[in-house]
Every structure is written in C-alpha cells, then in structure tokens.
C-alpha cells in the first residue's frame, strides 16, 4: 500500500546492494580455494570458472535447465518469504514439499481424470497436503505457544518417514525393481515447452505474483504483515493473532506443497524413496537473499539453480580436481551475509539509510 | 528572544567548556557555533526539544563525534578528543539514555567491565579480581548512601537502579564531570527524585554535572544554571531563580506556549464506562486490580492518579480488551462488555492511547499512512471487498497529519523514524478520528516534547467538550490536575478515593498516592 514510493530507483538500488555485494564476495572467496586446489595454475582456474558459467548459462539448453532447477526453489523460497514477512520461521518447507509431492503423485497415478483437469486437481491436492502439514505447527503455536521451529522440524521427520512407508508399501509400483511409486498418467503431466523447461515456471510466476498481491493489496495481507512486524500492535488493533498464525503457516506450507506437486508433475513423474529433501533448506538463503520480496525470491532461486547446474560442468572441466561441492561454500557465505547484513555494510562501509531501521527484523527468529 | 546571561564569579576555570562548536550532518546543522560552559560543582541543565542538538553537543564533548569547527576546553586547557577514551582520561564520562550494561552480568561485573583487574596470570588468562573492586565499589556506594546489591544480575534490576549502576560505573572510572543524557525519560517520578538527590550529593563531593532534559519542572527543581538550545543554536543561559516554566518553554519552542489549557465547565452526561468490583490479575496471577468501581460519563475527564505499578496498567488492559478480567463487570455505553475482544470494543466506540506506544501503539516498520488506519484498515473507505485502497488511506493520513501537525508531513515516512512526540500525535490523531465515545488515554505525554504536550492536551479537552468520556491514566500529577474533572487515586489495586477537581489539592493527592486515607 502506501509504502516507500518516493524515489523508486534509489530504493530499489539500496535493496539490491546488500545481496549483490554478498554474491560478489561469496564468489571471490572461491577464487583462492579453487586456485589452491589447482596449484595456482591460472589457466586451469579460468577454464574451471568458464565451466561454471557454461553450465549455468551458455551451453545449449543450460539456462533452461537452470530454470528447471530453480522452479522448486522458487516455491519453497516463496513459502519461507511469506513466513518471514508474517512472523513465522517455517523450517518445515522440506516436509511440506514432500507431502505436496506425495499427494500430487497419488492423484497423478491413481485417479484417472481428463487432461488439464488432472494436473489441476493434482496441484490442488499438493497444496492441500503441504498446507495441512504447515497448519499443524501453526495450530500448535497458536494454541499452546510451542515454537514453530521445533514443530516444523519434527514434522519434517514425520513427513520423511511417512513418505518412506507409503512408497514402500501402499503406493509402491508393483512391477519394477527400484522402489518407487507408479508413474503418473499422461493426462496429469505438466508439459514441457522448451527442452526440459515446463509450464511449472508459469505457475511459479503466478504464485510469486499471488504472494505479492496478497501481502500488499489485501486487508488479510495487512493483518498477516502486522502480526509479523509487531504482534503486540496487531493485538491492540483487534486482529486475531492465533488465527492469523495458523493461516500464515498454512499458506506457507501450501506454497511448499505446490512446489512438490509441480516438481512431480513437471519433472520426475514418479516418486522414489528418499525424494529430494534439500529444497526446503536451500529455501532459507533463497528467501533471505531475495529480501523476502517475491521478485527477489525468484531471482535468488534462479541464481541457486544456476550454481547447482554450473557446478556440475565446473567439476567436469577441472578434470575432477575441483569438487562441485565448492558451491556450498558460496551458498553458505551468501547465507551468512544476508542473514547478517550488518557484516556486509561493515566490510564495505555502507551507511544505513536513515529511513531504514536497524531493528526491522527479517525474521523474529526465536522471539 | 534574549535571556540575561550573567556568568558566575570566575573563581577558577570552567570544568568543561565548548567554544563555538559547529557540527553538520548531511543537510542539517545539528550544532551551529554553540558555546557552553560548565562550572565546577554545578548542575547545569541543557534544555531543548527533541532534535535541538543536545545529544550531538554532548557526544562531541565526550569524544564520540568530531566537531567540524570549534574547541573543547577541560579545566582551562584546550583538549583534543579522539574518542571516549580520551574524554574519560580527562575525567569526563557520559551516561547514555539507553544504558550500556550487560543484562546477564552482575552489578560488580558490569562496573569493572573494561577496567577489570586479574590475578593468577597465565599469559592473557587470569582470574577476575573481585574482592578489591567490590570493596572499592561498596565504599563508593556507601559514601553516596546508595543501596545496590553488587551480586544482583543487572537485567533483573528496575531501571532506576540500573541507572545508579551506570553512575557508580562512571565514578569507578574516576569521573569528575558527569554527562547524563535524558536520565529521567525512563524513570518514575519517585525514581527521578531519588536520582536528583544523588546528583546533589555528587556535586557536594566536587563533581560537575551536565543533565539533558526536555522537562521543565524537573529542570527548575534541580538546576544551578539552565542553558536552552533550539534548532542547533544556543538560545541562552538562565538561573532557575530568574526563570519560570513559561519563560523556558518560550525559549525552547521559540514562541509563546500555553501551558495551562482553557477548560470550560461541562455538564457531564450519561455514563459511558462503568466498572463494578473489577478484579484483574497480573502476569503472575496476583490481583493487580482488586475490586475497582469507576464511572466515566460523557463529557468528563476522569483522571487516575497513582504511583506507577499500582494496577493502572492492568486496569487499562482490562478495559481495552487486552487482558481478561478475573471478576467483576465492565459496562461500556450501557452494555455489558466484560471480556469483549479489542475489535468488538473498537467497533463499540472505544479509542485507546496505549501506555507503551512503541510496542502497541504503532508498527514502527509501517508508513505513517498505514499506522493511521491500524484499527480501521478493513472498513470503508480504506478497504473494499477485502482489498486495500491506498488512495483513501493516503488521504486520511494527509488529513490527520495536517490536523495534528505531525512532522515530517509525509504519509510515506516510516513511523519508527518519527520523534516520540510525533508518534504520539499520530496515535492520538488516529484514535480521535474514529468518532469514538470513550477515550482511554494511558500516559499520553510520557517522553513527549512540549509542543506535542500542548497539542495533545488541547485535543483531549476538545474531545471532552464534544461529549467524549475520557479516562486519563497518568503518573504525572500535573497532567492529571490540568486536565481532569474528577480524580481517582489508585493505590495497591484499589481506588482509595475519588475527588472532584475543586477539592483535589496536590497535598491531598500526594497523601492518597502514598496510601494514606484521611479519616
Ligand atoms: N548521526 C547523525 N546523522 C545525521 N543526522 C543526525 C545525527 N545525529 C543527529 N542528527 C540530527 O541532528 C539534529 C540534532 O539531533 P540531537 O543532537 O540528537 O538532538 P537532541 O538530543 O536535542 O534531541 C537532529 O535533526 C538529528 O536528526
Ligand atoms: Mg537526544
């Protein structure tokens, strides 16, 4: 609503500067590490970095693949960002993603439906599955005051084991040797439109728009943000804090669950045991790097997708000398920097804009 | 405006002197060729509204900021201060408004922090020497007849005691000149009185003290001399004997200020708020309000006087739906509203200026506009079918900004960047804009500058003249006396007596506040 609009470019510039410096510094830190592993052979170092760029962007279909890797992170990143903006730290995006994927895969293979309707129903099932998985810690927080960080982590474990049991027992595909669910029916598939890139991207963009719209344009979003910024003021203003807490974790979970559904319907099409679990955790730096803004989250997810894909080619081009895990260092440094913007400002002697209060929290954390 | 300035007979050099100090921040001149001198053994009050440049001047004298121009003299010698270390070396110590104590450390540990002595040295590691510093600190405290438990955790002490710890800490570092930045802003009147007694004792031991404040009464009570700053300039220095509240207010604000608000006689109407045998528990399940009967009628102001912590906070929370009462009944506008939610009460016609404005009253990270509709964001014209209408909100904010002279006059500015006075004006504007019938105002002018106090008082009276019923809870007796039609005194959770304003003298109220009922 009537947020800071006076000088849009300066404001945007200020918002960008910390994340950009964090990324640049994180990349710089890898230079001596890679240099060391390659015995300071700068020609090889150049080839290695070239590999990173090629794998992320320039090889044929590289950028499309980068986007494919980014899509699940967009959803979980949005889930985390929505949580942070509304005062909850949802570490349970992994479990919610998994429950969403499980519901979607079930609808996908077990319930025959006409095309278009089928993926739609599967997506809704995914969102409901994730949403319920988020609602539980939300309810526990609102009713008993137990902290969502602990409960979402516990629900992650519950989701892992539940999924494990389901895939090994009732949902197991009877024929093949590997343990996984049956493939979803052809009617349920989210189609690709450019190499592996699928229409899930459009769904992610719509979700981002939806989150932004909900938070900034609706009275419900105003309530959610108020509870996130100052629960005491929200109570004073007559808002129902408990209900809003449940809803914000439910929505956050639904976004993560939707991500799981999209990943199943657009990419994997069947669910093995030990289905990808790190999207929920990578979502934390994605949301923080994106400054909890929908557009920022999308861009941060693309960056993380690019790092993921680029690092494979990087490892290859260095002849295996540089492990692709070097990219974890980049991610860790980025997380460190965006979680503690004061460090970045201190290193680069940036002044805090007067209008921006140091106390404005990205997250209320353990409060 | 000019004020008479006759220097004290120069027996010796001033203890501390600022000569023509100029300090600019991007855009603002915080100090414009300001000169200031502190005589040995005096309490010199530096008075000025928020933003006048008081803290900047003192930060410069403490070496925290470098002046663009000007000189600093200590004991007749020009000095160069590159940091607080240099200032402390010269015996100048500043106690900040926000204490710099470590809450989980004990009093002793806090006092020796940074100058601690160790024994049994292994390289850098050593055992903290406690006994000797403890003796020295105890001696310091005894000398000033301060009772402080050196082994208590600082975080568990009341603010008033924490402040004393800060002062002992300064003395332990060998302070000869003490600078206190708004020390009473966080204190109750009783604590403030205790602090002033302590400061007096310190000057008798030869310390010189600069005390920053924007409160007129306490300034006249404690000062040996008063210097007034306005908009970065030194307006003048006066003796309290020659000064009056209205003179000081005029020097501070730069125009005549009406401290006493005109209050026409009013015929009170029907009751808008009634409580019957109200019992409210505090957080530890003790009855903080214990059987209170109150009536507030339309068109009257009922003042609740009392020392902080006698149940006023819990009473206001119960009346505004933030805390459910344990027993008794609350009627608002003739309807039983016991246990109603804040939203129900707001919609019934309750306006509430909360005690802790930073916590409840505003969302600091929201714009002024969003704060202006914090309680009505969902109602037309601010919202339609669940969608927010920023245009209507901005118009409302602009109007309130104009009516209440809120500065800066920009609806997009974040509320947290406003001064306390302007935050309070914003809250007052919002609450009075809803056509409510009952106003519950808790400490409405705490930590607020004179200009804002004047405006807020006028608005409360105006609301009452238009038939609003007002419950005014304040620990400032002057405020209660200036505004109320009737005064109820709270003591240990009970209303001891309710007096009409005509029979309420300061002495009588003082006795009641201390729990003494005349028979
Ligand atoms: N570090 C700073 N940067 C920019 N402006 C400042 C800074 N410190 C103070 N100011 C400005 O200088 C003026 C005087 O401030 P201050 O000395 O804190 O006033 P006071 O203590 O009298 O309330 C104000 O307009 C304030 O905004
Ligand atoms: Mg100040």
How would you describe this structure in keywords?
heterodimer, A: 367 residues, mainly alpha, ABC transporter involved in vitamin B12 uptake, BtuC, two-stranded antiparallel sheet, 14 helices, 2 strands, B: 519 residues, alpha/beta, Rossmann fold, six-stranded mixed sheet, globular, binds adenosine-5'-diphosphate, binds magnesium ion
Number of helices of chain B: 17
Strand order of the largest sheet of chain B: 6-9-10-3-11-12
Write down the overall mean pLDDT of chain B: 89
Oligomer: heterodimer
Distinct ligand kinds: adenosine-5'-diphosphate, magnesium ion
**Total number of strands of chain B:** 24
CATH topology (fold) name of the domain at 65-312 in chain A: ABC transporter involved in vitamin B12 uptake, BtuC
Helix content of chain A: over 70%
Q: Secondary-structure element sequence of chain A?
A: HHHHHHEEHHHHHHHH
Question: Architecture of the largest domain in chain B, according to CATH?
Answer: 3-Layer(aba) Sandwich
Cα shape of chain A: globular
Overall CATH class of the largest domain in chain B:
Alpha Beta
Strand order of the largest sheet of chain A: 1-2
- Gyration radius of chain B (Cα, Å) is 25 Å
| Beta-strand content of chain B | 25-35%
Fraction of helical residues of chain B: 25-40%
- Alpha-beta content class of chain A: mainly alpha
Domains of chain B (count): 2
Q: What this model shows, in words?
A:
The complex is a heterodimer of chains A (367) and B (519). By secondary structure, chain A is mainly alpha-helical. Chain A has a domain of 248 residues: ABC transporter involved in vitamin B12 uptake, BtuC (Orthogonal Bundle). Chain A is built from 14 helices and two strands. Chain A has a two-stranded antiparallel ribbon. Chain B has two domains: 130 residues, P-loop containing nucleotide triphosphate hydrolases (Rossmann fold, 3-Layer(aba) Sandwich); 243 residues, Rossmann fold (3-Layer(aba) Sandwich), CATH 3.40.50.300. Helices cover 31% and strands 26% of the residues of chain B. Chain B has 17 helices and 24 strands. A six-stranded mixed β-sheet of chain B has the order 6-9-10-3-11-12, with helices on both faces. A six-stranded mixed β-sheet of chain B has the order 18-21-22-15-23-24, sandwiched between helices. The longest helix of chain B has 16 residues. The structure holds adenosine-5'-diphosphate and magnesium ion. Adenosine-5'-diphosphate binds next to strand 2 and helix 1 of chain B. Magnesium ion binds next to helix 1 of chain B.
